[in-house]
Give the backbone structure.
Amino acid sequence: MTDTKHSKVLIIGSGPAGYTAAIYAARANLSPLMVTGYEPGGQLMITSDVENYPGFAEKIEGPWLMEQMKLQAEKVGTKTISDMIASVDFKSRPFKATGDSGTVYTADTVIISTGAKARWLGIPSEEKFRGRGVSACATCDGFFYKNKEVLVVGGGNSAVEEALFLANICSKVTLIHRRDSLRAEKIMQDRLFKNSKIQVIWDTALEEVIGDNTGMTGAKIKNLKTGAITEIKAHGLFVAIGHVPATDIFKGKLDMDANGYIITAADSTATNIPGVFAAGDVTDHTYRQAVTAAGMGCMAALEADRFLAKQDSTRQSEAAE
């Protein structure tokens, strides 16, 4: 027999957006149910040091912050379930989501907070030094390389933004790009080329991250035209080749942009399906910060509460007629 669980608010995915939505929904007496996925906490679970989340004078660990959010959400009444949503049906209410476990989750409203993951190069040494020199977020980790030399891999807006940001902190920034021209907007390229602290190495790919038990110490790079491999010293590597939103199960169910990010209404977390909301990195390809994700989680919960209140008011009016 299929196990079915119903809730007023179903939160799909965890992380700052999901946990904040859960806290606000629970405090509104909506008894939210959160299906966390198999990697609860999102990208902060692989962020060792967090220094830019408001409220903490000393650096904190990403996994610890996520655990505190989870505990707070559960303390105020959120029920969390470790399951992975495999499919959704938003065609009628109550909405329906089916987990890998076979459990069917029905809900009056849904908040999607499945997040996004950085697109990585896919080389073994990158994984080995992730968190020990290798990062995908300059605003998160750039401070740790103050007055040090770093590398940035990429050629689009994200890579140029990372390089410009790091140039304010680091002694030298080397941008490595596999082509002979950048894809970034012209105005951003102009800023990059005018910055004396930034060097661009063209037609080159990163082959290997080099380091020891203290962390990254450099990298091997390959010229794609000549095949020559050289070694370059650096304390940090920032991979900026884009992000991948976790939206596969929502394709064809919700409006998305060309990159797979869920489209929401202006100044809102509302999707094109009334009663379905999206918050955090799953809809944000611009900022991708824990604090902005948390803010959107708050918005989603408040909007879900208003949506439910309006539905109740409509039903009461119809019953009175």
Observations:
- Residues 92 and 273 are 10 Å apart (CA to CA).
- The two ends are 40 Å apart (CA to CA).
- The longest strand covers residues 4-12.
